[in-house]
Amino acid sequence: MSEERTEVSSLGEFGLIDYLTRNIEIQQAGTVLGVGDDAAVIDHFGKQTVISTDMLLEGIHFDLMYTPLRHLGYKSVVVNLSDIYAMNATPTHITMNIGFSNRFSVEALSEFYEGVYAACERYGVDLVGGDTSSSQKGLVISVTAIGEVAPDQFVKRSTAQKGDLLCVSGDLGAAFLGLTLLEREKKVYREHPQLQPDLENQAYIIGRLLKPEARKDIIAYLEEQDVRPTAMMDVSDGLSSEALHICRQSNLGCVIYEEKIPIDDQSRQQALKFGLDPTACALSGGEDYELLFTIRQEDHDKLVLSEQISVIGYMTDISEGAHIVTKGGNKFKLVAQGWNAFEQ
Amino acid sequence: MSEERTEVSSLGEFGLIDYLTRNIEIQQAGTVLGVGDDAAVIDHFGKQTVISTDMLLEGIHFDLMYTPLRHLGYKSVVVNLSDIYAMNATPTHITMNIGFSNRFSVEALSEFYEGVYAACERYGVDLVGGDTSSSQKGLVISVTAIGEVAPDQFVKRSTAQKGDLLCVSGDLGAAFLGLTLLEREKKVYREHPQLQPDLENQAYIIGRLLKPEARKDIIAYLEEQDVRPTAMMDVSDGLSSEALHICRQSNLGCVIYEEKIPIDDQSRQQALKFGLDPTACALSGGEDYELLFTIRQEDHDKLVLSEQISVIGYMTDISEGAHIVTKGGNKFKLVAQGWNAFEQ
């Protein structure tokens, strides 16, 4: 956070919006009208509009003690774009509502918006609206992402077929391990404020938590390879939970092979340091923002060259249930133990 | 609030969404995919998409001590639809994010959603997505409204012309007086809990605060009369503030005649009881959700029969500034004293 501190009240609400949106550059040809009126106007030129929305609340979804505001702004956008990509669509616009207490200065909000704009630029989306408001306590963020897709080319969760291969992008479990690490360091810091945090060699897992990316590249690759997933969603609550969503919504079962689940070496090492099972971190960790999707078996060879896509199992008849086959050859029922916001 | 109390944790997050969205009936032909996937899909059939979003925070925007949850759900939707109408567009879809602490039961959330669905039904919009989340404290609501408009038929704030007539729908100031009344009764109740609240004959002003409507009827009437406003916005922060927005964004001045400002008799009487100037309530009160718009002078006769539209002044050159002419014939500079969220 920079050292200057400008009180928000010195700008007023409209002054603040003007200030925070002063550098917006419109990137989308379809943006007919952006920030500054009652609503934004978008021309999708005959495509279908795809909408997703998410709320991030301080103390529930993030901890400002170890989350830089710039990263938080970036992540707030990215987690919403991830949902649009998960529909096989292209995000084009976002709106951003934030509520904040008077402990936030204009400089702090500017840092947050720097992250927002960095994400907009990287993913080619326009910020076209939103609301700033005071809150009694804590930072409240709500983002809506709008995208487009050629008519009926979107991919749902409910359309996987028996025999389809279950695939996942990137690797899993790292964000959860990053969170576990930062929570541990926070606890140490509280007990021994003089100690320096021990974050050596942890850049990958911390980065996965604090600054995730949406898998735009995977959607582009699938299109290049002319592979249309039969079902798709993003992994925000852990592999188990998401695989069970696809099963339930497609009315199928599945088999996942433990040895096929992609886990980065740093994640694996960190899990072992914590005395955690790396596979359990991947299954239940969450916040990976990878894509979980199913493809027809005949498309397998088209994806075999990508190091970013792992085939981890296949879809079965619903009567066979959803299972994981361990490295030792045992078969266990898949259970969703993902992060449940209501059990905290 | 009903007497049963079901803990949210007994349903789980996905169970809760399923439960709260179980009665959704799709009303819009353009709704290709609604709740239950990563995102919703909308087909606008070649029209432009209009997007608006707003956040409502407990303790800042509403007080649950005197706001029934059903009304709050209704109002959360309506205030967003109002922005879409203010673009001369038709709302078609909404998404709704809510965050709530564990003091809210499933029954309480159901009441809130009853109001949401009542508004959706009344205005013919589909709820197509959203997120429920726990919050550390207080109820947090964020709504995004999506609408459609025939290409380039939307109406901005910045396109009023010199000489245009300034018009407003309905009447102004009532919601502010309803708020003042309820805040007074809350104070009385806290000091003397045995006293019954004195809300006799106050249904109108309280209703205007707790259950506002968006002026869909005015947009329909203008279209019937073949009048396209030259500029338009909705009145959420008080007439002064909004008139100054139109002036600033259209690069014009204006004159408003005090005697022409529509104020309901109940509002007038209540203002006088409180020792307030009724005109000041209309100018600075806010939350009326009426439409403020400008029309060409030649369109005047087409609107003269509507009792729901008042011509309150006209647009001038910017060099003449923005003024109000009082009943006594004095001229004062118009100043925005609207509710400022950052000065509370």
TrEMBL record, chains A, B:
Q: By its UniProt entry, which Pfam families does this protein fall under?
A: AIRS, AIRS_C
Q: What does the entry list as the binding residues for substrate?
A: H61, E287, W339
Quote the record's binding site residues for Mg(2+) 1. T53, D54, D131
Q: Which reaction does it catalyse?
A: thiamine phosphate + ATP = thiamine diphosphate + ADP
Q: Where is the PurM-like N-terminal domain?
A: 36-149
Residues annotated as binding Mg(2+) 2 are D54, D83
GO MF annotation terms: ATP binding; magnesium ion binding; thiamine-phosphate kinase activity
**Keyword annotations for this protein?**
ATP-binding, Kinase, Magnesium, Metal-binding, Nucleotide-binding, Thiamine biosynthesis, Transferase
Where does the PurM-like C-terminal domain start and stop, copy by copy? 162-317
Q: Does the keyword ATP-binding apply?
A: yes
Say which enzyme class the record assigns.
transferase
One Gene Ontology BP term is: thiamine diphosphate biosynthetic process
Query: Which SUPFAM superfamilies does the entry link to?
Result: PurM C-terminal domain-like, PurM N-terminal domain-like
Residues recorded as binding Mg(2+) 5, renumbered to this chain, are D237
Entries under CDD domains matching the protein: ThiL
Supply the EC number(s): 2.7.4.16
Superkingdom, natural source = Bacteria
Which residues are Mg(2+) 3-binding?
D38, D83, D234
Q: What else is known?
A: Reaction mechanism of ThiL seems to utilize a direct, inline transfer of the gamma-phosphate of ATP to TMP rather than a phosphorylated enzyme intermediate.
Q: What is the official name of this protein in its record?
A: Thiamine-monophosphate kinase
Originating species: Chitinophaga japonensis (Flexibacter japonensis)
Q: Which lineage?
A: Bacteria, Pseudomonadati, Bacteroidota, Chitinophagia, Chitinophagales
Q: Which gene encodes it?
A: thiL
